[in-house]
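Hi V.,

You were right to ask for the full record rather than a summary. Here it is.
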Amino acid sequence: MEPPGGELRPASTPPAASPAGVRRFDDAVRDILQAALAAAGGKVYGPDGAAALLGLKPTTLQSKLQKYGVRAPAVS
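Predicted structure:
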């Protein structure tokens, strides 16, 4: 049975061209995670940590950081 709206492309086939301003999902998530960590001074836990800024549990944020290969910025 074909889904409404026409034919689906296989997930492994990249789109031919992206409209201006559109990024890959993984790249956008990685940027959001990096920005939250930077805003929190590299802190994940606590009321002023990146998890709180993003509305996530700290353990969930840690999983996402690992999945997307994001590390806390070096604090000097």
